[in-house]
């Protein structure tokens, strides 16, 4: 068989660029790009994407070498039958590195057809840093880079209101659109940019809060090899996800007319308030992911599906959801609605077609704990005056995970270096008997850099966390799980 690079069999659509996308990771490529292909096939949208690399490390060289072409494979159960779809992505016009190609990046601000700004820069991406400089090429934080881009656009079009944009951030943080706008306004003040520019941001641009949902497992060598055998195409960027998808957008009515999802079979809804939906999804699906990762990985399991196939681990996730998440969601949804959502999530976790690697979910786990588990922990304690044992066990496993080694095996940790170094320093001091487990725990949970709440104020928390850490280190995860009591 003749090996063909995917580029040779694909032609990029000849559409005007309508979307500037920050981030090109697995999730956004299997979510936004898939949706845009459907819009282009089924509606009048006719728009392409430019992808911007927002961070310094990495270069998207593979994506560039394939001219932005790759396959999305969606698999799952639909109407009780197995479904598999392979889609060719051909709506990406360019890939730009904001550091290596800064001038080219700014030049995209002068493209009149760009209307939508999409981003997926992880839960720590929408941030403000008062050390960022306007004249940097580029400034450090993602919202700072975006402010530079917007100022270039404002200047190029002389403040034309029609050249404002619609922002659809996909980051899993509360009020992601509002937070992105707030960060941009802070940079305008920090850099003393014009009042007229600020008014243009406020009046001619629209920042939508959104909530995305699709499990994306990433690259599959097995599926890539099958594709190669069938077509001769070699695709290094093939990405696998589940059939299930949902996108909730909180924004003005006119956006639904510009993005005609209603003319497709995509599950996209425009809502007045996505707060309760976000809480349910983040606490249940994302919370379960974050709770399971360190626990299951230290138990020797590598994928989400394997977690659900392992008796003790699947029980742990079930108990976490029903005993700790479900009781504090009753103000927003009925018990049946919550139970149905939990059942659906468990079914999705068991998807036989997905190989969702725990290590891929472990990226930025400290931030994920803060956004996905910490609110449940605090609300449960405040409402029930009791400790959520399963969340605390997960935190214990997370701190052991961040030691970087367990049972003689190295653990690859991907997170902010300052988090990793701090926790490893505590482990070093503990192993050298400079501090005991109580001091170790107190140093960690009182660190405001790590946690967005003072966990030392929760009665009994540090003691139980200390017990769980020692149990995991001495007896392993599965043996320790046997002694995790049901949450009252």
Automatic annotation (TrEMBL):
InterPro entries: 6-PGluconate_DH-like_C_sf (IPR008927), 6PGD_dom2 (IPR013328), Mannitol_DH_C (IPR013118), Mannitol_DH_N (IPR013131), NAD(P)-bd_dom_sf (IPR036291). One of its GO terms (cellular component) is cytosol. One of its GO terms (molecular function) is tagaturonate reductase activity. Residues 18-260 form the Mannitol dehydrogenase N-terminal domain. Pfam families: Mannitol_dh (PF01232), Mannitol_dh_C (PF08125). Residues 273-463 form the Mannitol dehydrogenase C-terminal domain. Keywords: NAD, Oxidoreductase. GO terms for biological process: D-galacturonate catabolic process; mannitol catabolic process. This is Mannitol-1-phosphate/altronate dehydrogenase. It comes from Galbibacter orientalis DSM 19592.
